[in-house]
Design goal:
Length: 140
């Protein structure tokens, strides 16, 4: 009976992250344009001087992370910010799971071009990516 109770307790602990509350991406307050996974393949508008954030989730504990592979000349190199996706990850002792991977770009002028990111793991560094994300930035 004790082993059954212990097994049930372990199962409950293992399932706890599934019942965790989501945490918003750790994007700075001065970002004007927020781009999530739902914008893949679409166009967004931004103005010169705007900060644009691409907010995706990766699985760095398994080695699967997003990397920027292309950006137009009127977009500066990004600032990279990472953080937990659930409140369970903020609790001590929680290891693994998805993490926010936020890239913050500054629009430095006018133009039209695509930012592309690829999700890669150590096994896919030289082959096809696990996933691809792209968004066209229109800056009048």
């Amino acid at each position: 009976m004790k082993s059954l109770i212990a097994a049930a307790a372990l199962l409950l602990c293992a399932a706890a992250p599934a019942f965790a509350d989501p945490v918003p991406p750790p994007t700075p307050d001065d970002v004007a344009v927020h781009i999530g996974a739902d914008k893949n393949g679409l166009s967004v508008s931004a103005s010169a001087g705007d900060r644009v954030a691409i907010e995706l989730t990766g699985s760095p504990s398994t080695g699967a992370s997003w990397i920027v592979t292309a950006r137009p000349d009127f977009i500066d190199a990004p600032q990279f910010i990472t953080g937990p996706t659930t409140d369970a990850q903020q609790r001590s002792g929680f290891v693994g799971g998805d993490r926010w991977q936020v890239y913050v770009f500054e629009v430095t002028g006018s133009g039209s071009g695509t930012i592309t990111l690829e999700k890669r793991s150590p096994a896919t560094r030289s082959g096809p990516p696990l996933d691809t994300f792209s968004v066209k930035i229109e800056a009048p």
